[in-house]
């Protein structure tokens, strides 16, 4: 099947431009397969990241037809269904662009330094300072380990970071990836820094209160981590520790949640969404 690819190309600090490539590919071909063919057969200067090709490393994250996704996961057939292309006189067009909220190095390659710095800022390591040195490794029950499954699935692809509306206007916001990792640390039974982690995310709009609840991070997450849900979890932990005389942000959310809880059942608003 003939497919037209329009790829946003640019070099650092240069004006971007769309470059068109035409391919004859099967419906099962992934977007990464198509990019490989363009590079190998048509234009060796095209730059993009790749590694595992199996939805594990997150390297090939980019914007595919308007949404952040993994090029190794999305295929031509699936994209055509989303595009709903019906004209038979012209080939369907797919637009590929680099991730947003990160500076472009070249073409589809972005500089991930800001992404990693924000992750490092939340200290994404299990803290055992309050434990005495054990004679054997820290053991967890199956139930305790099960709590880590969802947020531990994050492959740090940057899709949620790219889609985050808050980061477009608030560079201090730590980011959905870092907050999802914070939640993972908070629920880890081995970690002894829970109080510090929760308090650190209750500072202005740098932490969880900076989230606008746009839901885009949940929509694009390729691994089902659902960062906004993890952010809501941290917010609830903060609310549980506060009283009604705290900040306006805290009071507003507590009143809103209580109103929903006291409703007559006619309100179908999700408490997770309110948080």
Explain what the structure shows.
It is built from 13 helices and 7 strands. With 275 residues, it is of the alpha+beta class. The chain has 2 domains: 108 residues, Beta-grasp domain (Ubiquitin-like (UB roll), Roll), CATH 3.10.20; 163 residues, Fumarate Reductase Iron-sulfur Protein, Chain B, domain 2, CATH 1.10.1060. β1 and β2 form a beta hairpin. α3 runs parallel beside α8 and α8 crosses α11. The longest helix is centred in the last third of the chain and has 15 residues.
Keywords:
single chain; alpha+beta; Ubiquitin-like (UB roll); Fumarate Reductase Iron-sulfur Protein, Chain B, domain 2; 2 domains; 5-stranded mixed sheet; two-stranded antiparallel sheet; 13 helices
What is the count of β-strands? 7
Q: Structural class of the secondary elements? A: alpha+beta
Number of helices: 13
CATH uppermost class of the largest domain: Mainly Alpha
Overall outline: elongated
Concise synopsis of the structure shown:
The protein is an alpha+beta fold and 275 residues long.
